[in-house]
Each structure stands twice: as structure tokens, then as C-alpha cells.
Amino acid sequence: MSVVLALVPATSRPQLRSIEVGGDAMFRRCLPHAVIVLGLAAVSAFGQTVPAFDASGLVKLGDTKRYGSYDVVKIGDGIYQLKDSGDPRAERAGLIGTDMYLVRGTTKALLVDLGNNYIDGYVGDKILPRKNAAEELRAVIDGLKSSLPLEAAITHAHPDHDGMAGAFLASKTVIWMPKGEDLEAPKKQHNTDPAIFTTFDHQAKTFDLGGGRVVKPLLVRGHSNGCTVYLLPSEMMLFTGDALGIGAGRSLWAAAQLKVWAEDTQRLVDYIKASFTPYERYSLKVYTGHSVENPIPGFLSPNHGRVDIAYLDWRFVQDQASCGNAILKGMWLVPDSGLRYMEVINSQSGRKVSLFTYGIGAVEMPVQEAYAAAGLKMPE
Predict the structure, then answer these.
(1) Contact 173/154 with Cβ under 8 angstroms?
(2) Which of 37, 181, 284, 302 sits CB 3.0–4.6 Å from 226 for a disulfide?
(3) Domains, the chain
(4) What distance in Å separates the CA atoms of residue 302 and residue 290, rounded to the nearest whole number?
């Protein structure tokens, strides 16, 4: 994840500033089963119960219902966003929360990402355990998926995206991890047995949920070695976790990271161009892993207000790829190239960082690494 910031052009920076960031036909067919599910409470291994989650109020797009620590938002027919509001006592992803997404087909449901670990807590982000955390998440998922079998797939094995895997162990849910990710990461982070994850190869795997809904995983390295986005072509939705970054851009720390990220983001752009008509591409909705950070102030003016936006789009995907490739060419040194270099303040850490922007795309990375990636000598 990355958080950016306030912006002052490097060429004229009298003062750095800081900005705070911090209906379904399928459902109706499953309604008899849903009534049974919603009439029951979720029971924990210790005999505790939590209220069942009633999804019947999620009718129109944008309808939202609060349950436990989650805001559940209907973003499509049988498609839901679970927005974790975070914990003000925590740090980083534990502070801002992480989004999960559930997509329902006619034969199966898929949960993309598994959020922060509120079952055991996570020391790295100072996240404390929550009572009934596993039961509450299961209750939400059960209310949304009805009687359909569930699979889960993470975008990458970072603690804010694989944290709630333990909530689904008893149900024998298949939990998928992209090839290239560190299989030992869940063990290090949460003391979770890596054997609960099944790895998949991006070239061979798709998730057929029935009813024409087939989710295709696509590799976008950089943030991690197996970082993956999940494309739902039938609805023109792309679930990206941290792979592309958020409205504030993508943080990369080394020249090698930038090179693979630029290669894979360009490959993603090329795939979408080859697979869809222009008007299909224009309708693409991009849902990130930290949507609370999407409405950040605009890059062209540090006084720009927060953008009223719930998701990103095709332009963002293209501009991220263009930003990465322009850095590799050293284009921030070329006047009017479209790539801008700025020094900014990260409002969470208070650190001065280097930011490269192209349109609405942005990459935060050390300027010396940008020079190295472009094969240029850093000025003394």
C-alpha cells in the first residue's frame, strides 16, 4: 500500500505542505436458500453467536449496510465490496482498513482478498484482536453468498490482504495464492499454516463462477513478486489490491521493482486493449484494496479538494503504465514530456518523498533509484 501526501513542484518549493489522507436475478433464484441462511446466527467454535447478516436491504447499486467493522456496499448484481474501516489505534493498513470483494455467480462465489487479521491481531501494524472477528466476517459472507460454495483468492501475501484466512479453515474453503508469492509469509505474519493455501499459475487458472462470470487473474509484479489483479470481463470490473496502487499512486523502492512493474502494467494495458472494444474499456471500473485512499487531492494543485470518487478507471490504468515507462526513459528531465517530478510530504510518516506523476498516474520512489532505473547518473 502507499499513502501520499501533499504536493509542491520540485522546481519551486518555497514550502512543503501537508494534506491529510489518511438486484439480482441470481439472488432471487437463490432466495429460498437465503431465507434459511439469514434466519440463522453464526456460531463460533466456543459456542458464541453473532447476529446473521441480512443482505435483503442491498437492492440498488451503492446501497450500504454496516455490520461489525465492515461497510458492505452493493457494487453490482451479486457483487459486493466489504470496506473495513480500520482501527484508529493501529498503524498503516490497520489504521486505514482494507477492502475485500465478493463476486457471486450461479454455481460458486469468490472472495477477493482476506483483509487485516482481527482474529489474533497483527503486531506489525499494532492491530489488536477483536471479539468474534471470525464469526462476524463469516456471517457477512454467508449472508451475501447464500447457499453457494465459496472460494477465496488473495491479490498478494501481505498481512492486510491474507489476514482473515483463519476465519474459513473449519469450512474447508479453498484459499488461492498467486504463484510467485512467498508461501511462508502467512506463517511469519500470523502463524498460519501455509498448507491452507493452494497456489495457482496465472497462465492456466481462471475462476468460473457460473452464469457467464469468469474471473481472470493477471500478474502485475512490483509491489510483490506474485501480485495479482482479478478481471471480471462480464461486468468490466478489475479488483487490484495494491498492484496498481491507489488514487495517490504506487510506492516502489528500487529500480528493479520499477522495471518489472512498468513491464507488467504495460502488459495489462495491452491485454485490455486487445480483449475489449474502446467503449468496453471506457466502462472499466477499478476497485483497489484501500478505497478510502482513492479520493486524494489532485496532483496538479496542492490546494485541490478531495475528489468525489468511489473507484478508479481505465485512464488510471493507462496513466500508471505510462508513468512507469516514462521514468525508465528519464522523461522527468525532458520539458513538457508529461512526466513531472515533485517533492512531497507523506502526511502519515511526515517524510519528504519523491513523487513522479503522469496524468492521474503516480509513482513514489527514491529519486536516486529513478536515475538508476533510467540508466542515468544522479547529479552531484
Answers:
(1) no
(2) 181
(3) 1-21+248-380 (no CATH), 23-219 (3.60.15)
(4) 22
User: pLDDT tens digit string along 184-240?
Assistant: 999 999 999 999 999 999 999 999 999 999 999 999 999 999 999 999 999 999 999
Contact criterion met (CB below 8 Å) for 265 and 22: no
Q: Which three cell numbers stand for residue 183?
A: 508461501
pLDDT of amino acid 351: 77
Cell of 351: 517524510
Q: Give burial (CB, 10 Å; 0-12/13-18/19+) of 224.
A: buried
Q: How far is the C-alpha of 84 from the C-alpha of 30, rounded, in Å? A: 27
Spans in the chain with pLDDT lower than 70:
1-48, 296-304, 346-349
Task: Report pLDDT for 308.
Answer: 85
Angstrom distance (rounded) from CA 111 to CA 154: 8
Q: How far is Cα 323 from Cα 251, in angstroms, rounded to an integer?
A: 12
Which residue reads 503522469 in cell numbers? 358
Query: DSSP labels for 85-146?
Result: ---TTS-HHHHH--EEEEEE-SS-EEEE------SS-BGGGTBPP-TTHHHHHHHHHHHHHT
Q: What is the DSSP letter of 33?
A: H
Nearest one of 329, 360, 334, 364 to 346, comparing CA atoms = 364
Alpha-carbon gap, residue 348 to 6, rounded angstroms = 11
How much helix, strand and coil, in percent to the nearest 5, is found in the chain?
30, 25, 45
**Dist. CA 113–CA 241, nearest whole Å:** 8
Helix (H, G, I), strand (E, B) or coil at 344: strand
| CA dist., res. 244 & res. 265, Å (int) | 8
Cα four-point dihedral sign 56, 57, 58, 64: negative
Let me know: does 18 contact 8? Beta carbons within 8 Å. Answer: no
pTM metric for this prediction? 0.87
